[in-house]
Amino acid sequence: MTATTEASPLPPKRRLSNAQRQVVSDLALTATLCVSAIATWQALVSFGIVSRLVLPLPSSIPASLASLIDSGALLDNLLTTLAEAAAGFTIATGIGLALGALIAEFRVVERIVYPYLIALQTMPKIALAPLLLVWFGFGLGSKIAVAAVISLFPILVNTIAGLKSCEPGRLDVLRALGAGRWDCFRLVKLPNALPFVFAGLSTAVMFALTGALVGEFVGSTQGLGYLIVQANNLMDIPGVFAVLAVLCVVGTAIFGAMQFARRKVLYWAPNEE
Question: How many CB atoms lie within 10 A of CB 249?
């Protein structure tokens, strides 16, 4: 008798779900558009249709970026800009949350303070940069102040909107059970306002980076904004685009980190984006 051996069944092939296929399709389309845009850019500049003083060759940008990295200038100035933006964002977050809660909870504060905030909101905050430079000097203080002023209002407005959008019925139930103002704020209003707050924070964190750069444009001896100004003065267009590419990557990373934190905190509201 000869022993017969049964062939082991092959493992089933893993199939992508519709959502996964959609993600892959979107990424492929995005990559195709990006490569096509860069190739068109390269061709337009190479054939002299667009001047190299307007747009550099895309192939020249990595060399400029490598030069900045090798000299150590990129890391030092990047850390300076990030420190300014982080400090300004932190200050704006503290003031925005506290002031927003006071305005939403106390009508007297809303009547006295809110009109001035609206008037300040209508003013282009970038126009305040030269004045803040005079008040706080050419050091980090003026850049932090610009970042804080520019990023304050998204946090403030969203905090007020979130606290005021709470359903009155839920508050009436708590009050009927003997809850005080603080209990209503802590148990109902604050959780209801968190999606609004994070929406404001996601916007404000990008405004803080913009504010730090604006402050560096006005007057600075360090930071990514300073690098852009210096490269522009030297007509080093590839250097300008190299710094802009770094800013694009940094901004995307910061926004992604904020969205990650939002999903972790708002785990009970998965549909909030």
Answer: 10
**Domain-located, residue 3:** no
> Does residue 229 fall inside a structural domain?
yes
Classify the C-alpha dihedral 43-49-50-51 as positive or negative: positive
Number of domains in the chain: 1
Q: CB-based burial of residue 108 (10 Å sphere; 0-12 exposed, 13-18 middle, 19+ buried)?
A: exposed
Give the residue among 269, 250, 242 at the shortest CA–CA distance from 83.
250
Q: What is the pTM of this model?
A: 0.81
Choose the weakest-confidence range: 177-191, 206-220, 231-245. 177-191
Q: Is residue 24 part of a domain?
A: no
Whole-angstrom distance, CA of residue 233 vs CA of residue 224: 14
CA distance 154 to 207: 9
Separation between Cα atoms, residue 100 and residue 94, nearest integer Å: 10
Contact of 175 with 189, CB cutoff 8 Å: no
Q: Residue 208: pLDDT band by 50, 70, 90 thresholds?
A: very high
Nearest CA-CA partner of 163 in 72, 97, 258: 97
Mean local confidence (pLDDT), 250-267: 88
- 35-48 average pLDDT score: 84
Tell me which residue range forms the domain holding 225: 58-265
Q: Where are the beta strands (DSSP E) in 137-211?
A: none
CATH at 113:
1.10.3720.10
Q: How far apart are CA 246 and CA 165, in angstroms?
A: 39
Mean pLDDT score, 96-110: 88
- Other C-beta atoms closer than 10 Å to the C-beta of 98 total 12
Residue 84 is assigned to a structural domain of this protein: yes
* Residue among 256, 261, 263, 228 nearest 242 (CA): 228
